[in-house]
Specification:
The complex is a heterodimer.
Chain A: H1 7-45, H2 47-62, H3 66-79, H4 86-111, H5 115-123, H6 128-158, H7 170-181, H8 184-217
Helix pairs in contact in A: 1-2, 1-4, 1-6, 1-7, 1-8, 2-4, 3-4, 4-6, 5-6, 6-8, 7-8
Chain B: H1 4-7, E1 15-24, E2 27-37, E3 42-47, H2 53-60, E4 68-73, E5 76-77, H3 83-92, E6 93-96, H4 108-119, H5 124-137, H6 153-165, E7 171-175, H7 183-198, E8 202-206, H8 210-216, E9 219-224, E10 227-232, H9 234-239, H10 244-253
Parallel strand pairs in B: 3-8, 3-9, 6-7, 7-8
Antiparallel strand pairs in B: 1-2, 1-4, 4-5, 9-10
Helix pairs in contact in B: 4-5, 4-6, 5-6, 6-7
The chains are: A mainly alpha, B alpha/beta.
């Protein structure tokens, strides 16, 4: 006698796994945002000193597949005898990956602010930090919103790759549930819908913020 | 009668530039500049593009780094790797740019209030009162809440002057401040600068407005190929140029 699964059973379990996807995405956003910001500030503050480190870091994590980074942070750390949970491995890999992309996106936005803005700040005796915070960052932020949010949507979908190291997030949970329920179409359609429900509001927010910051300038 | 040497004795100099050299890679753009400016003096720097006049101006507040020589403003030597010395020096030196460089995300009033609030820790009310007074002085008292892009070029440049004055500078550097303006807007900006000169502000200005330089400045510096080629009171320099280069430069302007 096969167990019967109602749609509610499927949905309930997928929503639970969706929560893990959200948690993992948050770790990637926050960790990647902080690391990316530190990288960016170091790079803009002392280009001669940190420029090449910045470039190598960005090229390394942009130029290798996220899948490899996940494998390496999971199995690689184990090779050195460091036992880490899938949370730590996935969180670490996603943080590094996200930080590289965000740092590069933001660097471009900062670079697009005319040099005269920095010079005007400097000639008014503002420190580097004050020039950044009060003059350049507010202008760069407006430009940065669409590409940043666009990339965050990519990260949410990218967390699906954490399933390869056994992290039971939305995609892996969908796989497992499809295997026991024999309802792959229903299950994966629901998985897709849940991803959409996560990503679409973020895109809407981005559009709203873009309009709002534009309105301030007009 | 005080001699010229006495008038520029070190203790009476507000800007003191000695044997200043600057190069970009192998290209030396300033080849040993000596320039001493008295408080209240108005100095116009003229010369062809590429003569190093803007670079010299930008050295005075540390926007350009020079390799050799010394620069002292109001008793404060320029030290690149000392952030607090740099901050102190820049508070004595205001700068106005060709392209205005107003902060586009801030209103006119907040453009003016930003630096005094941050650097001089002026409280909000005092900064606002000062900003309003400065706007009145440049004839823009009704523009406090306007955004920079709503203003004409001439108005933006006058806001930039007010913004620089808000730091109570001892010296004001003007880097071709009317070159980006439509001809009919030049007068309103030069009018403000002339007013400052009359009030005793020390001014160093790179300019292509020869009539203005002649009328307002106490001394004209002609730069050529990275050197001070000729220097003197405007009547003398324009009326009786001593070198072929200056004669050629002046005649090229009349065409």
């Amino acid at each position: 006698m096969m167990p019967q699964f109602s749609y509610w059973d499927i949905l309930r379990n997928l929503i639970y796994a969706g929560e893990l996807t959200v948690m993992l995405s948050l770790i990637a956003f926050i960790g990647g945002g902080i690391v990316g910001m530190v990288l960016l500030l170091a790079r803009v503050w002392r280009p001669q000193v940190f420029g090449s480190v910045f470039n190598i870091y960005v090229q390394l994590f942009q130029g290798t597949p996220l899948l490899m980074q996940l494998f390496l942070s999971y199995f690689g750390l184990r090779l050195f005898g460091i036992e880490v949970s899938v949370w730590v491995s996935a969180g670490l890999a996603l943080t590094l990956y996200t930080s590289a992309f965000l740092a590069e996106i933001w660097r471009g936005c900062v670079a697009s602010i005319p040099k005269g803005q920095w010079e005007a700040g400097a000639s008014l005796a503002l420190s580097f930090g004050e020039q950044m915070r009060y003059v350049v960052a507010p202008q760069a932020m407006r430009i940065a919103i669409p590409p940043t949010v666009g990339f965050l949507v990519q990260v949410i979908k990218g967390t699906a790759l954490a399933s390869v190291i056994g992290f039971a997030e939305l995609t892996r949970a969908g796989n497992m549930i499809a295997n026991v329920t024999y309802q792959p179409f229903t299950v994966f359609a629901t998985v897709g819908l849940l991803y959409f429900c996560l990503c679409y509001p973020i895109s809407l927010t981005a559009r709203y913020l873009e309009r709002k910051t534009n309105a301030v300038r007009r | 009668m005080p001699s010229a040497a006495e008038a520029t004795a070190p203790h009476k100099r507000i800007v003191d530039i000695n044997a200043l050299r600057k190069s970009y890679g192998d290209n030396e753009v300033l080849k040993g500049i000596d320039l001493h400016v008295r408080p209240g003096e108005v100095v116009a720097i003229i010369g062809k593009s590429g003569s190093g006049k803007s670079t010299l101006l930008r050295c005075i507040n540390g926007l350009e780094e020079f390799q050799d020589g010394g620069l002292v403003v109001d008793g404060k030597p320029l030290l690149y790797d000392n952030a607090s010395a740099m901050r102190a020096l820049r508070q004595s030196v205001g700068m106005i740019f060709q392209s205005f460089n107003l902060f586009p995300h801030l209103s006119v009033g907040r453009n003016i209030m930003l630096a005094p609030s941050l650097v001089k820790k002026r409280d909000k009310t005092a900064a606002r009162v000062q900003a309003e007074a400065l706007l009145e002085r440049v004839g823009l008292e009704d523009k406090f809440d306007a955004m920079p892009e709503q203003l004409s070029g001439g108005q933006q440049q006058r806001v930039a002057i007010a913004r620089a004055l808000a730091m109570d500078p001892k010296v004001l550097l003007c880097d071709e401040i009317t070159s980006a303006l439509d001809p009919e807007l030049v007068g309103e900006v030069l009018g403000v600068v002339e007013g400052l000169a009359k009030e005793g502000m020390t001014l160093l200005m790179v300019t292509h407005e020869m009539r203005f330089a002649r009328k307002v400045s106490d001394r004209v510096v002609f730069m050529h190929q990275g050197r001070v080629h000729e220097m003197g009171p405007p009547a003398e320099l324009f009326g009786n140029p001593q070198t072929a280069e200056l004669r050629q430069f002046l005649s090229s302007l009349q065409e």
